[in-house]
């Protein structure tokens, strides 16, 4: 072998292999690797391998991945067994993790502590896991923030579901049969999902209010054309999240909110506290006091719901009020949700690659050090 050929072979061998296989979680249509990000990774010097049919749920054809430079394999095991970095949306089952290369990197929404078998499989294989839900909420991390990008799609879809379920028009209409007044919509929680829901309701012509126990959200709500609902209770917390309310604060909030909901047509609830069950904000008694034909779409259904009557994955009727608890709403907008998720993943994976496209870890980078699981000892 000539020196040039040997150098080329060494360069090829040093290339990091990035793999992605089909999602196995029920109803999951999103992908963590799109043809767009595949092309960028190949340009960065990586070898990309995918399982055939990877992007079918997000309408990304195998041919598009091949054109972007990916190797398309029939077997998920072949991809997982050879990849240095595996990217995913939902966490792979423990059996799939067991087929990964020892010491490989896994990047996605992993929730390693949410399933004992999954966590044990990660540690047994020596997997370097980066659950992106642990990513610090800093300015630099915004381009990698999967929680925010996916919440935006979820908030948008939640309001569309509310409009579909409501037995009323959202906008004001002047017709030969008289004037139709606009629907009154209340969005609970003014995080990314809530703000997108407010913006969507406003575009649909509704009369919109936003409620959040963090007073600093007033300006954001009003900037989108909504009215800030001030119930006199503040729960400003750290990192842009709300803290849990005291019993006294919650009682005052509940009393004032119950009175207000009597005149609301639609509620979209999005309030969440990281790592904890969703706060119960809308009680059964409040629902009983709402007008017949009112609608509640509970975006927090996956973590227990903001409404006491929410049943995850179901639509229920209670005294003429429709309560919907949709799950994994971001997946229902799989094309654009995947575009955003895959860009978030690409931006994070880029931190793991050197200029030659080889794998490296800079543990002085807080984004890596604070995201990795299990946590690394200081120093």
TrEMBL record:
* Catalytic reaction(s) noted: NAD(+) + NADPH + H(+)(in) = NADH + NADP(+) + H(+)(out)
Q: Which UniProt keywords apply?
A: NAD, NADP, Nucleotide-binding, Translocase
Which interval of the chain is the signal sequence? Answer: none
Task: Give all residue intervals belonging to the Alanine dehydrogenase/pyridine nucleotide transhydrogenase N-terminal domain.
Answer: 19-154
Answer yes or no on keyword Oxidoreductase.
no
Which InterPro entries would you find in this protein's record? Ala_DH/PNT_CS2 (IPR008143), AlaDH/PNT_N (IPR007886), AlaDH/PNT_NAD(H)-bd (IPR007698), NAD(P)-bd_dom_sf (IPR036291)
Q: Does the keyword Transferase apply?
A: no
The family database entries (Gene3D superfamilies) matched by this protein are listed as: NAD(P)-binding Rossmann-like Domain
Q: What is its EC number?
A: 7.1.1.1
Outline the extent of the Alanine dehydrogenase/pyridine nucleotide transhydrogenase NAD(H)-binding domain.
163-325
Q: Which Pfam families match?
A: AlaDh_PNT_C, AlaDh_PNT_N
**PANTHER family listed in its UniProt record:** NAD(P) TRANSHYDROGENASE, PROTON-TRANSLOCATING NAD(P)(+) TRANSHYDROGENASE
Q: Which family does it belong to?
A: Belongs to the AlaDH/PNT family.
Record-given protein name: proton-translocating NAD(P)(+) transhydrogenase
Mind giving the lineage of the organism this protein is from? Bacteria, Pseudomonadati, Pseudomonadota, Gammaproteobacteria, Lysobacterales
